[in-house]
Predict the 3D structure of the following.
Amino acid sequence: MRNLLRAGLYRLSKDILFWIAVGVSLLVGIIFGLSYRSQSIFDDFFIMPVFLSLGVFISLSVGREYSNGTIRNKLITGHTKANVFLSELILNIIVCSVLFVAYFGIFIGFSFSMLPTMPLSDALITIAGYYLLNVSFVAIFTVISCLIPSRAVGVVACMIAFFVIMVGSTRIDYMLSQPEIATIEHYDGQGNLTNTEEFPNPDYIDGIARNALELCDNALPYGQLDTYLSYMMIFTHSPNPQAVAAGYRNVLIGYPFYSLGLIILLSGVGLLVFRKKDFK
């Protein structure tokens, strides 16, 4: 395993794709920092390019090892499939960490004076949770790339997975936000409220289905991202942030455990399937 990691780190240092990904992260961090200075808004639009560049890099990097026979050669020289898969995962987590530091560091550098003041414990929980959210995407992209030998198909599959997670998380959040009781307001010709009518909302989801949706919303990285951004906005714009943020803290404390669970689950499934692949 150490030899695989050592060789992989050496390849990374010479890999133009890696440095392009670092450059994209720095550029997006600068743009996000400047945007925040002018608008004080945390927008996921400025975070998407980092995830996309991570997915493209992982799929192209692993796909290249398939196409030039590197993975097959590793197995021929005596490395186990488990070590090969885990070394790819660890290397991609290292790449993610570099991109995370580059993006987050440059963003803070450009917007430090404008960032909201929040308790140190809250800041640490947010940073740690956001980092693990990134690693969740690494696990998703690595599993897809290790199971699909084609670079082109791997890139497309990673991009589809990202947008499915993004759209799915948005839809789940909308479904969970539906109130249990719907209200209709009636107005007279002068625009004055005359009466209100309340009735059970047919779009409200309850029971096992709601529990399942909440689990998906908590586990999916993009669902977590929306919550983190909303949490940061509280300290930026709310007149009483501590009172409003209190309702978020229990959720945020649980997010790292959801991320770790998803990472372990995906890595385990990916490893099992990878071990059954025929590389002859």
